[in-house]
Amino acid sequence: MKYIYSLLLFTCLFALHQTTLAQISGTLTGTLTDSSGTGVGFGTVAVVQTAKKAIVTGAVTEADGRFSIKTPAAGTYFLRITALGYATLETPTFAVTDPSFSKDFGTLTLRNNTKQLKEVTVRSSRATITQEADRMVVNIAGTALAAGSTAYDVLGKSPGVFIDQDGNIQLNGRSGVTVMLNGKLTFLSARDLRTMLEGMPAENIKNIEIITNPSAKYDAEGTSGILNINLKKNTQQGMNGSLYASYNNNFKQFGYTYGGNVNYKSGRWNSFLNLDAARRVGGREATFTRIFYGTDKTTYFDQVATGNFAAEGPPSVRMGTDYSINDRHSIGATAYYITNFSKSDFLTDTYIGNAPRTYSQYIDADNINTNRFTSFTSNLHYTGKLDTLGTTLSTDLDYARITNRGDGNFYNYFTDLASGQQTRDFLYTSTPNGYDILSAKIDFTRPLSPGHKLEAGAKASRVVSDNDFRFYFNNEGLALDPKRTNHFNYRESIYAGYLNWNGKLNKRFTMQAGLRAEQTLSVGNSYTTGQVTERKYLNFFPSVFLQQKVSDDYQISYSYSRRLTRPNYGNLNPFRYYRDPYTYTEGNPYLRPQYTQAFSINQTIRKVYNLSAYYQFHRDVMSEVPILDVANATTIYTTGNLNEGHNLGITAVAPVKITRWWDTQNTTILSYNKFTTVSNEGPLVNDQVFYMLQSNHTLQLPMNIRMEMNLLYRGPAASGLYHMAPMHRVDIAFKKSFMNKKLDLTVNANDLFKGFRYYWTTNINRNVNEFDQYFRWRSVGVTLRYNFSRGSKVDEKRRNNNLEEMNRT
């Protein structure tokens, strides 16, 4: 806490210092108006050097037309003023003699430049993809991909991105992805992140940044990279928003969602409110097969299982506001609250015997669980432009509180198939847990010279997790089971700082290099067993990016970065999660972080085709590890550290326009994965060549109906100690707009051929563990979305511009 308060104090003092410096410097001021005397807001005022005709600085006018620019170095200049709908205006030249020089240009009147144009219809089906030094940017705004879709839809269709039904995300076939919203962490579980994205219209998205090798500016967490969703800023005066409702059915269960969002902009305030309610459903049908080879006998374990899940609650609330103090400084806050109540069951029929299909025992196990989930996340932020050269300072303070109040009943019925004798064993668990997260950070950016920039920052975070899991026998009333009960408390503090530089080396090469340091302090305390696990480690995470412009149509990027993935808080808790009498999951307090070194070479051809080659080396790979108790035919699932992993592959992204009305976006991945570790019986190696084909099709049909078809095929793969069989899916959707594009109707069907089935196997010292599961991906649904606008119409004279965009012109 002391470190966090120090950061905030430093922020205030630094901003005050920069404000004082700004008062010493001279300024160029004035006001832009139209012929009626009305102020022209969001016009561009550029300071141009007379001799070289080069722009040296500039600003964007405020809503009332005023502008203020820091005086440039000594020389002769003139102002070039542009605004949408007006003719360009240039002022007479003026001479700057010293930094304290000031000049008031008074009122500058712009002339209308209105031209009558023929009607033009622009159709853009696929998103434009651009490759930067350290990221791929998928531009969503204005494309058909965004129309009538949700943020969840477009994220899942981005190159190399795969999302399962629980919201878990893979990038280029690898898990461990960090998701950010406007450059800020969401602090949400995978399932709740999916809830938020499904309630967010894709029309609100500006672009999606796919950062496979993040720079030192970002947290080192996330070995597969970062997906950053940038939302469009609301520039429409007055009120606008949308309402939506949807229904879906997976042929076993039904679900629905409904909600809306409102944006309101007036003067210096820009606010939003989102309300989203849902009934989420899911389930699975599965078979589990195990073979245990003991010293004196072999045990065969065959199980059939059915699972069901449903969660619903009151509407979640996401709200925020930003206030522009002036044209350089703004403050804002966001908050997100969600709560729901879920019910789930896992029903199994298990047969055990000493020969194939020759069983001696039958177990009917019914697990019934309920849980109340509550999450509150909030953010306070400040952004300041300290001068007209592009120096910026930003700070963020985040707080999150997440709680679960769950319990479970486990009804086990045993039948001896030889004698017919029946017995039973009832169990009960109470699993309350919660997390408190507090984080503060500060980021500073300073242009050094044309084409060069320095970034620096610091961050501190604190996490406290408390889990009081109690296990009871429930045969003759509740009796505490001390062997399986555990009260576990986990505390973690992370202190980080970074320095990052980027700039042009010459006309062809641009470089970015940085170093991030993270100090981690953690204590895991099991009050029940008295076991205390302390960790203290300092890590450095370098990153280097080199971009080469071979020609206007061919660019090459080289990158290296080091990353880590810290253990999930729940995976550190040694409590046992019960599934059936012969199967349970157990936490691992000794679990170590996973470290990854990533190398890649990316080629961009004609600005639309991308080919990436990469290699990743993983140390202490975190993976689910099945521990086999052969003598008792019991399987214990835990998360452990494998020795190392290797991932070598290529990814190709190629948009193809088949006809004027048929557009496609295609991604191909080919990689080799290898995982190694050492067991009591010797070394274990799991390797596999993996390939994935992903093709998204958009077709403009008659009657303004848009059809989308998504094809996905994943070949066999290796993950930790598991071997995964091939899987495929086909999704299809039809969308049509009514009422002058205010009402969107979408009908969709997912996994038409029921091919997205999880068939995973392990073979550890001849002992077999395999499971075949289908998670009810096949579903149909319908969605209605209504877009509305109240108050002022869009002011076409306004434009969201900044100095960087102006320099590109």
Automatic annotation (TrEMBL):
Residues 385-786 form the Outer membrane protein beta-barrel domain. Residues 1-22 form the signal peptide. The keyword Membrane applies. It comes from the Bacteria. Keywords: Cell outer membrane, Membrane, Signal. It is found in: Cell outer membrane. InterPro entries: Beta-barrel_TonB_sf (IPR036942), CarboxyPept-like_regulatory (IPR008969), OMP_b-brl_3 (IPR041700), Plug_dom_sf (IPR037066). The keyword Membrane applies. This is Outer membrane beta-barrel family protein.
